[in-house]
Amino acid sequence: MPAPSPSLPLASRLLRWAGAAWFVAAVVGQAAFIVFILAFYGLRTATGNFAGWNDKPLIDGYVAGDDLGNLVFIAHVLMAAVVTLGGLMQLWPALRRRLPRLHRWTGRAFLVVAVKSRPSPSWATPSLSSSSPPWPGDARFNAGSRRTASGRCAPSWRSAGSGSCASA
C-alpha cells in the first residue's frame, strides 16, 4: 500500500478554497442579477412606468396595447428574480444543513416557478420560420436577424451569425 502523499492536505485545502471562491462568485453574481431585476423592472412596474421597461437596449419589454404580452413579459422577468434566489438557496450548504425543511420547500417552489415561467420566453419569441402570423409584441426578445418593434436589429439565438436583419 503506497504511503499517503504529503500534498494531500494541501490539495484538500486548495479544493475547499476553490469551492468557496466559486460559491462566493456565484452568490455575488446572482445577487447582482436579482438586485438589477428588482431595481430596474420591479421599480418601474411598482410605479406604473411600464414604458420604462424599454430603457434597456435590445429588449422592447413594453408594447402599448398588448396587455397580455406585457403581462407575460413582466411575469417572466420578475419570476427570474424568484428562480435566481431559489437557486441560490439550493446551493447554500449551511441552509441544507441547518434548515433542511426550508431547503426542501425552497427546492419545490424553485421547480414550480421555473417550470411555470418557462413558456413565457417561448411565447414572446415565435419561430422565425413559422408560417403563422406574428403575435402582438413578437419582437420583444428577438435580436440579430430580426428588427425589434422600434426598428433595432439585435442577435437571435435562432439565427446567430447570419448577420442580417429581416425587414420589419
Q: Uncertain spans, ≥5 residues at pLDDT below 50?
A: 126-148, 152-163
Largest sheet: 2 strands, antiparallel
- Envelope shape: elongated
On the 0 to 100 scale, the average pLDDT is: 75
- Total beta strand runs: 2
Structural class of the helix and strand makeup? Answer: mainly alpha
- The radius of gyration over CA amounts to 22 Å
Distance between the termini: 72 Å
Largest beta sheet: what is the strand line-up? 1-2
The helix count comes to 5
Helix-strand topology string = HHHHHEE
Helix content: 55-70%
Tell me the fraction of residues in β-strands, as a range: under 5%
Report on this structure.
- By secondary structure, the protein is mainly alpha-helical.
- The protein has a domain of about 110 residues.
- Helices cover about 55% and strands about 0% of the residues.
- Strand 1 and strand 2 form a beta hairpin.
- It starts with 7 loop residues before the first helix and ends in a 14-residue tail after the last strand.
- About 20% of the residues have low confidence.
What are the defining features of this structure?
168 residues; two-stranded antiparallel sheet; 5 helices; mainly alpha; single chain
Concise description?
The protein has 168 residues and is mostly helical.
